[in-house]
Amino acid sequence: MKWTWQWLVAGLAVVSLASVAPATVLRVPSEYPTIQAGIDAAVEGDTVLVADGTYTGDGNRDLDFGGVNMVVMSENGPELTVIDCEGNFPDLHRGFHFHNGEDSSSVVQGFTITNGFRYGEGTEGSGGAILCVDSSPTIRANIIVGNTASAYGGGIYCYDHSSASVQDCVIGENIADSGGGIGCDYECYVAFENNVITGNVASSGGGVMADSCSTVRISGSTITENRACYGGGFVCLQSSGVITNSILWADSAETGSEIYVMGSCPYFWASLSVSWSDVQGGPSGIYDGGCSHVWWEMRNIDADPLFVAGPHGAYYLSQVAAGQVEQSPCVDAGHPDFPVPEGTTRTDEVCDAGRLDIGYHYTECVVAVGEEYREEIRTLSYRLAQNYPNPFRSGTTIAYSLAAPTWISLGIYDIQGALVRNLVRGAVSAGPHQVVWDGRDHRGQQVAGGIYFCHISVGDHTETKRMVLLR
C-alpha cells in the first residue's frame, strides 16, 4: 500500500468521526491559492488538503481555524510540505493559532513548521509554531523545527484550559524562555504520544514544561539532547506529570538533568509518576525541589538506549535482528498491557510485534512475512535513508546501508542537477554507514537555502532523496 494512500486514509478517517455530514476536500493551491483561503472556505468536518511545496507569506502563516473544526493536512507528509513562517523581529509570525474553542476534531497533520518567531509577554511572545488558548486541537505527524518564542513554548504552547493531543511529531531545535519544545500552562491537560523531542533549548524545561496546575501525560516518546538551566528534558511546576514507556536520555541542565519537579506550598503541590521508562541517572536524574510527590515506579531502567540512525531518523534502537551488534535495553521493555503501535524501532523497518519497545516508534514499517519479506529486506539493504533532520539548518545526517563491500558514490546535487559536493566516493565496507552534510559545497562555502538532492550509486543501483535546507 502506497504511503500517500495511507496518509490520506488516516487523515480522512478523522473527518468521518467529526461529522455525519459528507465532508468536502478543499485543495491548496489548485482550488484555493493559500492555506488560509482553504480554511476560510471550509465548514465543519471538511478537509483542507495541501499539495507538496514550501508555503510562505500572508495566507500561509498565522493560520486560524476561526472556531470551525476541520482537518488541515498535507498530501504527502512533512518532508515534502513546509510552512515557512519567515518570522523575525519585529516581523512576528507563527504557524497556527487556535483560540476559538476548537476541539480534538480540529487537526493539523503532516507539515514541517519552521521559522516561527514570537516576541513579547504572555501569549504574544509564546507558541513559536503553534499557540493554543482554551482550545484542544489534535497535532499529528508534524516536524516542528527551528522556531523561537521569547516567553513560552518555542514549538508549541498550550494555555488556559487547553487539552491538546500531540502525536507522532518530531519537535526539535526550538528555543524559548520556558518550554523549549513545548509549554503547557494554567490548568491545561496535554497528552503526548509517540513523539521525538530533541535539541530544544530553554531556561526552564528544555524539552517540555508544565506549569500552574496543568497535567501532562507522556507516553511512548523519546526526549533527548535538550538543554536548560532547570529540567533539561522536562520541568513540572505546580503540576502533574505522568511518564510511561518513554526514554529521557542525554538531556542536560544545571539542576535536574532530565527532570525538575517543584510545587508551591501549601496549596499548589507538584506530582510526577515515572514507570516502564528509561531515564538517564535513574532517580538521581530527577530533581525534587520540594512541595512535590515523586513516584519512581516499577520497571524503570537507567541504561544507554543505544540509538542508531535509520531510514527516517536518528532514534531507532540498536537490535541484533536488524543487523546491529548490540541489543538496546529498551527493546521489549515496555508495559506488557500497552498495545504495540503500528510502527517500528528497527532500522530494517520491520513492524514491532510482541512486547512493546520503550520510546518513539517510526510510523512507516513492513510486516515480516516469510520469503517475500526476506526479499524486501535484501532490497532494503541497498538503501539510502532519508536524511535527518529534514528540513535542516546547519547540518544533516545521511544514513545508508550496503549488503557487501563495494564501490559507491554519494553526492549532493542542486535542483538544476549540478553536483554540489561529493560526500563519499570509493570502496566502502558492508553494513550501516552515515555521513554528515554541513550545507557547504566542495569549496567549503555555504550554499543557499532551498531544495537539494542526495544521490547514491551502488553498482547498478541508484537512489535519490529530497532535502530542504533552511537559511
Automatic annotation (TrEMBL):
Coiled coil: none annotated. Residues 103-209 form the DUF1565 domain. Residues 408-453 form the FlgD/Vpr Ig-like domain. Residues 1-23 form the signal peptide. Keywords: Signal. Gene3D superfamilies: 2.60.40.4070, Single-stranded right-handed beta-helix, Pectin lyase-like. InterPro entries: DUF1565 (IPR011459), FlgD/Vpr_Ig-like (IPR025965), Pectin_lyas_fold (IPR012334), Pectin_lyase_fold/virulence (IPR011050), Secre_tail (IPR026444). This is FlgD Ig-like domain-containing protein.
